[in-house]
């Protein structure tokens, strides 16, 4: 079963400095049909204007991933981490028992465009931790690059949940086949471009929830960038 989540049906909030689209219920946007999917709780597509950002605020018991598409995002937290996240880099915070952080667009001229992803952890109260890594998705074009998984694998980021998150860039007509194990589920998020998923069309920022399917056939109908979540 494949359930489409069309980009133009998402929640939307424009605060001037922040233009945000909410895949799932978030803040003042509530849709009882889209409270999350499996352990996925938030997928927000954000554009932050130059010289603006989120002031210091707190999180707890959540796995938070930031995936920058264009521009740059400056991060600071109360664990002493301070960095700038560029396209190709992925940042993770395991908020655990509690973390304070801020996110700011340091550019004076260019907006920053990003996806922020929240995943419910499989246990609460872990010690907060932070990771930031670069993944050469362009070099691995046409294939899936594992960027996050439970306990980490190789050079991927570690998350406190039974999930495998892949990223891929696909040239037009490129095809990916992915086999879902029994009782596993998937979420396909189109980041850029357009693809078909088992012959269903997904355009920029569209997504699909997948259950009770064995094989996922993803074909790029335009040059595309995707995120694929394999979920318990």
Topology:
Elements: E1 2-5, E2 11-14, E3 18-22, E4 40-48, E5 53-59, E6 63-70, E7 73-77, E8 82-85, E9 89-94, E10 99-104, E11 112-119, E12 129-134, E13 145-150, E14 157-159, E15 163-170, E16 175-179, E17 185-192, E18 195-197, E19 200-202, E20 207-210, E21 215-220, E22 224-231
Parallel strand pairs: 13-14
Antiparallel strand pairs: 1-20, 2-3, 3-4, 4-11, 5-10, 6-9, 6-11, 7-8, 7-10, 9-12, 13-15, 15-22, 16-21, 17-20, 17-22, 18-19, 18-21
Please explain how this structure is put together.
The structure is a single chain. The chain is an all-beta fold. It has a single domain (2-231), classed as Jelly Rolls, CATH 2.60.120.10. It contains no helices and 22 strands. The chain has strands at 2-5, 11-14, 18-22, 40-48, 53-59, 63-70, 73-77, 82-85, 89-94, 99-104, 112-119, 129-134, 145-150, 157-159, 163-170, 175-179, 185-192, 195-197, 200-202, 207-210, 215-220, 224-231. The chain has a seven-stranded mixed β-sheet with strand order 1-20-17-22-15-13-14, with no helix packed on it. Strand 18 and strand 19 form a beta hairpin. The model has no long low-confidence stretch (mean pLDDT 96).
């Amino acid at each position: 079963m494949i359930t489409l989540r069309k980009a133009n049906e998402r929640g939307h909030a424009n605060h001037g400095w922040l233009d945000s689209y909410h895949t799932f219920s978030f803040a003042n946007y509530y849709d009882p049909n889209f409270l999350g999917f499996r352990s996925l709780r938030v997928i927000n597509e954000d554009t932050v204007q130059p010289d603006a950002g989120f002031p210091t605020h707190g999180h707890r018991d959540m796995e938070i991933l930031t995936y920058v598409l264009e521009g740059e995002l400056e991060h600071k937290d109360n664990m002493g981490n301070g960095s700038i996240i560029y396209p190709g880099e992925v940042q993770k915070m395991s908020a655990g028992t509690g973390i304070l952080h801020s996110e700011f667009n340091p550019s004076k001229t260019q907006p920053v465009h990003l996806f922020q992803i929240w995943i419910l952890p499989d246990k609460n109260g872990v010690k907060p931790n932070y990771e930031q890594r670069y993944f050469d998705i362009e070099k691995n074009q046409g294939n899936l690059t594992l960027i996050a998984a439970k306990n980490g694998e190789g050079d991927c980021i570690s998350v406190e949940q039974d999930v495998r998150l892949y990223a891929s860039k696909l040239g037009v007509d490129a095809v990916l086949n992915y086999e879902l194990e029994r009782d596993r589920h998937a979420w396909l998020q189109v980041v850029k471009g357009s693809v078909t998923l088992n012959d269903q069309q997904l355009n920029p920022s569209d997504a699909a929830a997948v259950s009770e399917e064995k094989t996922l056939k993803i074909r790029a109908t335009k040059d595309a960038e995707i995120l694929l979540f394999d979920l318990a």
